[in-house]
């Protein structure tokens, strides 16, 4: 089982000819709103990859629709708390090439407290996964509790903060980073990734695939990407991580789980949207990338 301490956002998408520069005002070609937040995206992805996922998080009084949507997508929502703060949201600009920039408002995601986390993880069993990102409060308490209970910890270190990573890294079993974040972490720690106290590190490389650093086996392996036309990169990394952790939770070896995650991420960049358009396991397995 996967226990995902994660954000829940309303994603507001603005589709533009180009991303605005400093001081520039630009009219959007179109707009849509959907369910998002790195946490919610990963919960949906893991559930669609046939894992059992319990989401630990918070929404405001305006967020019942988001909880209902997660439940509809197969996520266990019993440990999502309604708090006084408004639900988090993200304003996402997407240009004609599918690149984006994002402005986040944390809202209820920063109202998650130790009591909520403890109540959820008290139901966990050894070898379950705790999955975390950097969009909620409570990560330090969660990771220490998880290790005490014998859970495996998967950490997608985004939005990236070197301080946040270093606070929890001693308890992390699987660390997922993109190439920029990996370089920033090496600079902040003064260590190569192979010297960090983490058994498995996965670096996503966009169109160049991904790299797996196994510090337990002292090996580094690269995995190529699948050829796709990029429409929107938003949520692709979250989809990758959700499928990866789901595969490992289901007992796949790392190479098999990474292949599944690469396929899911490749399908995702061909779609506009986030949690609402994450592919399911059958789509991922049946798609022919040749």
The average pLDDT score comes to 95
CATH architecture: 3-Layer(aba) Sandwich
Query: What fraction of the residues are assigned to beta strands by DSSP?
Result: 15-25%
For CATH, the homologous superfamily is named as Ribokinase
Q: Sketch the topology as an H/E string, one letter per element.
A: EEEHEHEEEHEHEHEHEEEHHH
Proportion of residues in helical segments: 25-40%
Strands of the widest sheet, in order across it, are: 5-4-1-8-9-10-11-12-13
Number of domains: 1
Question: Which structural class should the secondary elements be placed in?
Answer: alpha/beta
Report the top-level CATH class.
Alpha Beta
The gyration radius over C-alpha positions equals: 18 Å
Number of strands: 13
**Number of discrete helical segments:** 9
State the distance separating the first and last CA atoms: 33 Å
Reported for the largest beta sheet, the result is: 9 strands, mixed
What is the CATH topology assignment? Answer: UDP-N-acetylmuramoyl-L-alanine:D-glutamate ligase
Would you identify the regions where 5 or more consecutive residues have pLDDT less than 50? none
Write down the overall geometry. globular
Structure description:
- This protein is α/β, with parallel strands linked by helices and 290 residues long.
- It has one domain (2-278): 3-Layer(aba) Sandwich (UDP-N-acetylmuramoyl-L-alanine:D-glutamate ligase), CATH 3.40.1190.
- The chain has helices spanning 38-48, 64-72, 114-121, 139-148, 162-168, 179-189, 236-249, 254-268, 281-286; strands spanning 2-5, 9-15, 30-36, 53-59, 80-82, 88-94, 100-105, 129-132, 152-156, 174-178, 200-204, 210-214, 219-223.
- The strands form two sheets. The protein has a nine-stranded mixed β-sheet, with helices on both faces. The protein has a four-stranded mixed β-sheet with strand order 3-2-6-7.
- The longest helix is centred in the last third of the chain and has 15 residues, at 254-268.
- It is globular.
- The mean pLDDT is 95.
């Amino acid at each position: 089982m996967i226990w995902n301490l994660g954000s829940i956002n309303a994603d507001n998408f603005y589709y533009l000819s180009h991303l605005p520069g400093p001081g520039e005002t630009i009219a959007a070609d179109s707009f849509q709103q959907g369910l998002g937040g790195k946490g919610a995206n990963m919960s949906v992805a893991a559930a669609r990859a046939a894992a059992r996922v319990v989401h630990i998080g918070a929404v405001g009084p305006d967020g019942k629709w988001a909880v209902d949507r997660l439940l509809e997508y197969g996520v266990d929502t019993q440990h999502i708390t309604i708090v006084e703060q408004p639900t988090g949201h993200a304003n996402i600009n997407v240009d004609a090439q599918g690149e984006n920039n994002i402005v986040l408002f944390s809202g209820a995601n920063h109202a998650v407290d130790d009591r909520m986390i403890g109540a959820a993880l008290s139901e966990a069993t050894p070898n379950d996964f705790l999955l975390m990102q950097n969009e909620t409060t409570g990560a330090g308490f969660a990771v220490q509790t998880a290790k005490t209970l014998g859970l495996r910890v998967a950490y997608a270190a985004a939005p990236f903060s070197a301080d946040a990573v270093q606070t929890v890294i001693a308890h992390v079993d699987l660390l997922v980073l993109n190439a920029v974040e990996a370089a920033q972490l090496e600079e902040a720690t003064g260590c190569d990734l192979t010297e960090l106290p983490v058994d498995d590190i996965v670096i996503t490389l966009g169109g160049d695939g991904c790299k797996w650093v196994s510090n337990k086996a002292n090996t580094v392996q690269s995995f190529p990407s699948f050829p796709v036309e990029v429409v929107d990169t938003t949520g692709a990394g979250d989809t990758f991580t959700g499928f990866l952790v789901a595969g490992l939770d289901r007992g796949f070896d790392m190479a098999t789980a990474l292949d599944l995650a690469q396929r899911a991420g490749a399908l995702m960049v061909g779609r506009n949207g986030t949690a609402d358009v994450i592919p399911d396991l059958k789509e991922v397995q049946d798609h022919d990338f040749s």
